[in-house]
Amino acid sequence: MNPATLIPTPDAIPVPWGWFYILLMLTFLLHILVMNAMLGGGIIALISSFRGGEQNTLLSKEFGYKWPYTIAFAVNMGVAPLLFVQVLYGQFIYSSSILMAVWWFSIFGLLILAYYAAYIYDFKFEALGSLRIFVLEFSVLILLFVGFLFSNNMTLMLQPEKWQAYFTSGSGTLLNLSDPSLIPRYLHFVVGSVAVAGLFLALVGHYRFTKSSVDRDALISKGMGYFTYATVIQIFIGIWFLIALPKNIMMVFMGGSGYGTILLLIGIVLAFAALYFGYKQQVAMASVITLVTLVIMIFMRDLVRIAYLKPYFQLSDLTVQPEYSPMIFFLVVFAIGLALIGYMLKLAFGCRKEVTK
Amino acid sequence: MNYPVWDLTTYGGGFLIALVAVVHVLVSHFAVGGGLFLITLEKKAYKDEDAGLLDYVKKHSKFFLLVSMVFGGLTGVGIWWTIALLNPAATSSLIHTFVFGWAAEWVFFVGEIVALFIYFYTFGKMDRNNHIIVGWIYFICAWMSLFLINGIIGYMLTPGAWIETHSFWSGFFNPTFWPSLVFRTGISLTLCGVFGFVTAAFLKDDNLRQKIMRTCAVWVAIPFALMVGGGWWYFLAIPEPAKTIILEKSPEVTNYLQLLTWAMPILFIASMIMAIRLPQSFQKVFCFVIVGIALIYFGAFEFIREGGRRPFIIYDHMYSNQVYVKDVPEIQKAGFLTSSKWARHKEVTDENLMDAGRDLFKFQCSACHSVNGPLNDIVPIVQKFDTVFGMDSMLNGLGKINNYMPHFMGTREERWALANYIVHGPDIRVVQEITQQETAQKKPAH
Fold first, then answer.
1. How many folded domains does chain A comprise?
2. With an 8 Å Cβ cutoff, is A1 touching chain B?
3. Over the stretch A266-294, which tens digit does the pLDDT of each residue have?
4. Is the CB of residue B340 less than 8 Å away from at least one CB of chain A?
5. Are A203 and A283 in contact (CB under 8 A)?
6. Which of A153, A220, A222, B116 would bridge with A205, disulfide CB 3.0–4.6 Å?
């Protein structure tokens, strides 16, 4: 059977695809940043709890204060890219989600559990005593599992040739475990999250933009330590991920496409630069470089998607039924929203100063 | 037919979405009105310099954060998750038609979260006026979320001029937009009182508890008028034939309508009982009973609204089973299985009769009918048809006599296969041996 016959007919879009593409890239970057703080932060808190000691315990306690925020915003910032990916690639992602429906459906229930566990960890830190490590483990393991399910769906949606498995099992229990790129891709996200979360810790230590009773130097050195070690591992996983991709897709980054090759080269150079500044504990430089690297990696991730789908679909195939006024409405709302959030943050930070006075 | 269908059998027929949606709508409407409840009480506490009341507002805001943001927020994402799995074609249609409506709603969702976090964590630390302003921003963002989603949900029942124009705005400001907005705003405010009982019931100070119970009873009573008035206006705004389906035709909706008419006054009376000074042990239990009644009441309403849409998921645009209305003539000519991308067999033969029938059931019926499940179980409904011929005639009559169901889509052979599956299928009946000869005998000439 020709897998292309399974791909549903997409619906028309109201403005040219480029708009959605920009919004997708932008909101995905926001999601990745917050998701990294959440997942990587959880992993670091867990490692700190295991290692013990005063500073480590303080670190895992303080992470507990911030954890519920990061979960709320990781989910919230995930809504927008998932919306735009459904606009551009709905016919793929709806289909693959149904193939793994049982797993996919479980995600928001699991997240509710992880979220409440995070609140229990935060509000009952002292009362829980030695039990709190189990609460932390419970929540981190759920988040790791949810990430794994995401990696499954994001790869399954790109491979209609695997969709025929539906005809032997339509009950929604499939995963994409046979894909050799699944594990390195997943680990690339997990280890990357530890690096970015380490950087967040160092930033907190360096700029003091939020109160912390952890020793300032310890915060910076621990944060940069996590960042540097994770980045070293990340370079190896990145290579593994690259060679685990199907050959034609790997070649996009190795001469097949000028754009793809340049992105990979910049990515490699930046990774080593990040490593250098991480080792030197230069927080600001490491942060700027990491942010640029993340942007490069997000564009590379998208090139992978485009290359997988090339035999079946490209974004310019989508029919446009132009209607611009709703987009203008959204952009106005977006601007108002940013202004309101800025105003509220100003109030919140202002009152913190009053309290500390 | 464009998308695969998740094979759910027992939990089919919309069970999963009903489960997620009913709890979500209760909490999400509470999340809207709750903002106004908090700031009104906070202001009153400042005015009267009432430390007890202020302390209650702070406690209630923690409950509110944990219920509305964690549970409400995630079940909201959960609804989107669920509809995409159960009805991807309709979800895709809603996403593509209203993408910037959803995107704007997302902005308000961000605003809501930021405001609520700041409101909760700066309680007692921020300048009083500023704190109230943050509360107002929360309420406005939450109400704007309601405003936007209300337009999109209303469109599914009454798309109005959109059917002709396909314009975002005509679909959004559809014929039931305003009445539904008034109704839902009324519900949101009523629910603040309902959930207020829960936090108030656990207060130790008798006088404070009773005072807040009375306040909550007022919060139920006054918006109740808005809710009932809005609900009536909403009902009047529903065009025919949806109204007749709700009132007379649909067997499922009639039961929910009865439930609604009972639950509404009971909710009111039960809430007023809370205004009476009663033992705390009673109040601690009874507050949850009231939440239960509200859940039944609101659940019944949502079932009626969904049921009124039958046989469509988006009125006059797409049938409940994901078939676009415009595609029907072509399907009747070419056949359903040929037109379905995810059907295993493209045409019916004597060998694949049962499999093809099962596929037809999955693609055309399972959106609304479970097999041996809690919602719209097909098994008892078809029990009286013991011959394929009888079932086939029934299928032929579908949508002609009962217009709350779509008519059968496909060729006569396909209808015959579906009838065979329903009568002899191993999932629906005890396995019965059917011989080729028997099918051949009964098969009509075509």
1. 1
2. no
3. 999 999 999 999 999 999 999 999 999 99
4. no
5. yes
6. A220
Q: Which amino acid is at B166?
A: H
Provide ipTM, 2 decimals: 0.94
Q: Do A115 and B130 touch (CB under 8 A)?
A: no
Say whether B100 and A327 touch across the interface (CB within 8 A).
yes
Task: Identify whether the C-beta of residue B343 lies closer than 8 Å to the C-beta of residue B404.
Answer: no
Q: Is A354 inside any structural domain?
A: no
In this complex, is the C-beta atom of A69 within 8 Å of any C-beta atom belonging to chain B?
yes
B-chain CB neighbours of A14 within 8 Å are 96, 99-100, 168
Tens of pLDDT, residues B57-98: 999 999 999 999 889 999 999 999 999 999 999 999 999 999
Q: Which of residues 145-174 of B touch A (CB under 8 A)?
A: 166-169
Picking from A28, A69, A99, A105 by the largest number of B CB atoms within 10 A of its own CB, the best residue to mutate is: A105
Phi, psi of B312 (to 5 degrees): -105, 160
Give, in order, the Cα–Cα distances in Å from A333 to each of A222, B114, B148, B271, B335.
Answer: 40, 16, 12, 38, 46
B333-366 per-residue burial string, b: 16 or more CB within 10 A, e: under 16:
eebbbbbbebbebeebeeebbbbbbbbbbbbbbb
Residues in chain B with pLDDT < 50? 430-438, 440-442, 445-446
Cβ of B75 and A112 within 8 Å? yes
Enter the tokens of residue A305: 């998607």
Segments forming the whole domain that contains residue A263: 12-161+168-328
Which pLDDT value is given to residue B247? 84
In a domain, A110, yes or no: yes
CB contact under 8 A, A170 and B16: no
- Domain ranges across chain B: 9-319, 325-442
Contacts of residue A163 in chain B, CB cutoff 8 Å?
4
Integer Cα distance of B18 and A273 in angstroms: 52
The CATH number that applies at residue A100 is 1.20.1630.10
